[in-house]
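Subject: sequence -> structure tokens, single chain

Hey, anyone have a minute? Need the predicted structure for the following. Not urgent.
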Amino acid sequence: MTDRSLRPADPSSVGGHRLLARLGEGGMGVVYLGRTESGALAAVKVIQAEYAHDEAFRIRFRREANAARRVDSPWVVRVTGADPAAEQPWLATAFEPGPSLADAVGRYGPLPLRTVRLLGKTLARALTAVHDAGLVHRDVKPANILLAADGPRLIDFGIARSQDDTAITSADLVVGTPGFLSPEQAMARGGDLGPAGDVFSLGCVLAYAATGRPPFGSGTADALLYRAVHDSPDLDGVDEELRAVLLRCLAKDPADRPTPAELDAALVEDVSPGTAEWLPPDIVRMVAERSAAMLALPEIEATLAEAPREPAPSRRRFLAAASGTAAVVAAGGGVAAWAALRPGTGKKQAGAPGWALGVQADLSGSGRAAGQAQEQGARLAVEQFNARGDKQFTLELRTSDDAGRADRAAAAAQRLVDDPDVLAVLGSSTDETTQAALPVYDTALLPLISMSAGQNLYQNVRSFVRGRPLHGTVAMKLAFQLEAASAATPVGILLDRTAGDVSWQTVQMVNLVVRSYRDATHPRVVPAGTADFGPVLDDMRRAGIQAFVYAGPLEGAIRAAGELAGFEGPKYAAEPALDPRFAAQESAAGWTVVAAAIGPDAAQVRPFAQAFHQRYGHPPGFWAAEGHDAANLLIRQLTATQGRRPARKALAARLKSATYRGLTRDFVFDPKLLQLGTPATFVHQVRDGAFHYLGPAPDKAPRAKGK
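Reply:
Had a minute. Here:
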């Protein structure tokens, strides 16, 4: 579990609650575990001082407290006290130690049908109480549902409002969590946000519980909002009877949705809500473990003090440590200099604290080659750091395997969050797993840098930076490379919807850039899961295409290469095709892939590649150098603390303003977008069954538009 000890700056009591531990910390404040004089436990939410001076925020906080107090239901966490007028406003609720629905599904996958029905019945009754109190919750989602042995609990009235209250919220403000909000919320129709919106959100929650995935998929906020308004929900695998009920909840027109009471009646189940049999055994154990861990507290004691600090190092020693591995490489030492840093050549300083970096990646799934490469690159950086004689602390590397699965990503992230030694994390391997893990890291303010996830992930940015360009930027560079390398036109562009938003972004950008150079395109789309590209490729050939671009997953790229074996024009594929399995196909010869990963055979990473081979006994794969760079970037931020152990939150802030010259790119982050201001993209071509590195992709095409 995460170290939940109170810190020197924490208060010892709030509003008659003796504080025992920290439960969590967010952007607005800290939640503590408190005990009243009578011995009752409570979750005490204390607002940070900087927000306490914001009168508008006090109004919102007072509204939250008053709203929650008016709800009377065993399935809604009860407010036990509040003081919005205090110097630091606070609100206390009855303490519920169980995990959230998001945690449970993230760890164990979809719930049994009976559990889903009981979950729906009890939450419908919770919403009935909320609506009877004249309120609309507006943020019903898996993270706001706690699981207890006798049933779920609905929490967090932070954005609830009275049904006739329109003064606080702007009419054009989207309120709620994309993926679990109603079409009227997605379109920011403030006047239409009534109880039916909560029913739609509950339908999304039940679909998530039954399938392990949100009914409108994952991706950017804009994409989720669009799907909520226009697309049908994904209910594949849902029991037919339950599916019919959920379709009513997820109706686009609020008037077509059932009331919570009608939903309660429609979900027929023999076991009554409130009995211990409602959860499957695995989650019962999870509830018990969480409860035991949270309640295994010492008797009330004074706030814990931090350990004494080591004396700060001299300026010369600090500068030597801060220069790090990059200085060795810059000295031109080649493999000899890198080998000098291999494990075992340095001595661990007596008494030096042991800190850890985390890596969350696909280490056992279908994308394990890339995930393992990142982990090995990062581990080499850590071992080289530990070999230095001037280090101020010793580092460890802790890994958490999500197997490349979004439904396991949150649990994988939680394992690193719960490890008190982990100060920052590299990960995860894919867009989907990073998207699923971000809320966990963001809540804990644990710094996270991703080198391979290129989606826009703006909804969670407090602790996250992206160390690679966005997919749209990579697609733009692909188009520049195509224009620079060939005058062939028209260009056939195939969008394979199996890869979701990534393919769409790629096709849109390539189409835009190619046409801006007055070249013609012939774009075509195939539905997700299409196994036969033959008809659409035949159509492209008949249209006279002279070049071809495929945007889709690895498997589709292999299929497209096979079916275009006789096509002589230039052939390009988006980043998912950067995989040895694609290059191994005989039909892939000559294909070009533009990606954010540098080639392991690039001259600028040759010393690293040789040291990697010496350490692991094989050449590095794609993304290994990026993992090495990310670890060294994090190490640089740690060494800048002069041997003082940083708080995670402070390290996250430092990371956002970091600058670092790595092997693969210069790391300079845009302070507004929290992404690289100096994106690096690279070109690879398949020859003799393997990828060969051609160099950086051009920043612009050399030909003029009027050519």
